[in-house]
Amino acid sequence: MITRKSKREIDQMLAAGKVLVKCHKEIAKMIKPGITTMEIDAFVEDFLAKHDATPEQKGYNGFPGSICASINDEICHGFPRDEQLKDGDLVTIDIVVNLHGGLADSAWTYAVGEIDEAGKRLMEVTKESLYKGIEQAQVGNRIGDIGHAIQTYAEGEGFSVVRDFTGHGIGPTIHEDPHIPHYGLPNKGLRLKEGMVITIEPMINEGAWGSKMDDNGWTARTIDKGRSAQYEHQIAITKDGPLIITDQDSRD
């Protein structure tokens, strides 16, 4: 069932979003060769506790971490672990914050040390594809408009769009209807209405778009070992246009 959120509910999400953004900005300072994603996970849990918030995905269907940490060819849902990040790695940190019942969800890809030009371009195109999708998150548009904008841009730049994982509705639980594919046809699918809150979170690959699952039943990775990047924002559909609940104030 698709629910439209009240102003009070969206305000709760905005408050959670402020905590999440502060957390991501601290993580950005931590990313360097030698750090482990387990250390980042511990930092996030402590940071959220200090802000009277909790990591919503910890324990969700048995997920072990306070964050998802996906490295290089891992597309999403990587487990935090003691493996040290290396110079040139890409790592995506995905966090869902619960602040007094309001949820905020955002993933961000970070470069570890110095990365190659191909990696930089993958990150740039993925981030831009997110904003191409957000531009279409307008009252009266359809879900297909979001996916089509992302797909045509990313594929036009020579990359592929993951199809096995999508954005979603959110609040008061992590994953709600509707699904928000990052590919599709314009003017197709459910019409967007004021009060809907969704995530847009394109996962863009260097090579083929297909994925395969690790034995842990959670972590998805590319089928050809190409790298993957992801940027995610949570969006409220309003009469004045898309409201980015997890806005970091810039595209940097």
TrEMBL record:
Q: Name one GO biological process term.
A: proteolysis
Binding-site positions, a divalent metal cation 2: 105, 168, 201, 232
Keyword annotations from UniProtKB, A to Z? Aminopeptidase, Hydrolase, Metal-binding, Protease
Top-level lineage group: Bacteria
Q: How is the cofactor bound?
A: Binds 2 divalent metal cations per subunit. Has a high-affinity and a low affinity metal-binding site. The true nature of the physiological cofactor is under debate. The enzyme is active with cobalt, zinc, manganese or divalent iron ions. Most likely, methionine aminopeptidases function as mononuclear Fe(2+)-metalloproteases under physiological conditions, and the catalytically relevant metal-binding site has been assigned to the histidine-containing high-affinity site.
Q: What Gene3D superfamilies does UniProt report for this protein, alphabetically?
A: Creatinase/methionine aminopeptidase superfamily
Plastid in keyword set: no
Q: Which cofactor(s) are needed, names only?
A: Co(2+); Zn(2+); Mn(2+); Fe(2+)
> What top-tier enzyme class does this entry carry?
hydrolase
Q: How does it assemble?
A: Monomer.
Function, as annotated: Removes the N-terminal methionine from nascent proteins. The N-terminal methionine is often cleaved when the second residue in the primary sequence is small and uncharged (Met-Ala-, Cys, Gly, Pro, Ser, Thr, or Val). Requires deformylation of the N(alpha)-formylated initiator methionine before it can be hydrolyzed.
Q: What family is it from?
A: Belongs to the peptidase M24A family. Methionine aminopeptidase type 1 subfamily.
- Stated name of the protein: Methionine aminopeptidase
Q: What taxonomic ancestry is recorded? A: Bacteria, Bacillati, Bacillota, Bacilli, Bacillales
